[in-house]
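subagent[fold] <- orchestrator: predict structure for attached chain, return tokens only, no commentary.
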Amino acid sequence: MTQQQFNDGLLEFIDSSVTPFQAVTTMVDALVAAGFNRLDEGDSWQLERGRGYYITRNDSSIIAFRYGNKSELVHGVRMVGAHTDSPCLRVKPNPDLRKHGYLQLGVEVYGGALLNPWFDRDLSLAGRASLTNSEGRLISVMVDFKRAIAVIPSLAIHLDRDANSKRTVNKQTDIPPVLALIEEDDDLNFDGILSQQVELDNPGVKVGKILDWELSFYDTQPAAITGLKQQFVSAARLDNLLSCYTGLQSLLGAGEEVTSLLVCNDHEEVGSNSAAGAQGPMLKHLLQRLFPKPEDFARVIERSMMISADNAHAIHPNYSDKHDGNHGPKINAGPVIKINTNQRYATNSETAALYRHLSDQVGVPVQSFVVRSDMGCGSTIGPITATELGVRTMDIGVPTFGMHSIREMGGVEDAFGLSRVCKAFFDTENLPWC
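subagent[fold] -> orchestrator:
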């Protein structure tokens, strides 16, 4: 695969993966097309060496793996982890707001969203809805309006002269999106709007009663290659769909000798504390089923490694003082090893050295990021996975601008480079500690 082919696929993947539910659906489609087989966590499993398998949980988290021909007791498991969720605006359970002739929806902020960029964007809505159908059966379905159905209008500067210096965003009152103009006797409501869309998106489904939903607004502007020299990738949800796609392509290209695994968890942006999150037992349960004897499990973990892939902060030319002077990653200068001595990242010298060695072998540059000593540091699924499993782990990320904005920006070279290193990692039969 060329860099251009990789990036074309990345743009398509991001545009189709507008929520974690759609992201998992998109990954499942790619896995099935590559011959991977679905496993149900409630069934007994009969696995064959050399084949690919996957499980999903909550429709929003996924683990896919190639069950290698060589013994994991000797060679361990190669793991790459990412997350499917991004900061966004979620529709509340009783969302209908009718004010001054406008229909609006109440929303809740999911994760640490950068809110100002959400204003004046063409927004659509997608996710999962649960309902009874015309036969009274309880089902859950995917929903995606796809078209622009809402906007959060800014307050004109004429009415807020301090907007450019002092404006703040009230999460309760300032961000309900506007959907329509309505008359006083108009009975238009969200239940009816959603019921109609469910039936449009799911032919053959007749809605009896909408019972609940997990729906997120998203920007309808497509992902794009941008810049005067076409050097940048601009898109929503680069954090962290970029890593999901990178891990997926690496897994699809991996060989069949060593067991290789991709885990993409939901709920990272809100702490990972869920059955489908990295703090939950999903990955551990799968590995325990592959290696049910406690001694075998411990031996496999000792010979394994996890690469936690989540975007890094590129040094911003307008705010360079926000970085440590010696650790300001640049876009298109290579993936970034993320290091924090207080274990906000799971990287240690041993795992970082292996990554640097693999990068040298495939000719991909590498950078380092350490947060300023006087600033707080974010975290990833890396330390959580290391704690839950006891597996050697490192944190890596592609440098980006605008993290947690409605539209983020990275480089055309970095994700492709990371995919090459991850594929080399998947294909490495003997780690130094094996």
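orchestrator: received. Logging for downstream: The first strand starts at residue 37 and ends at 38. The CA atoms of residues 346 and 383 lie 5 Å apart.
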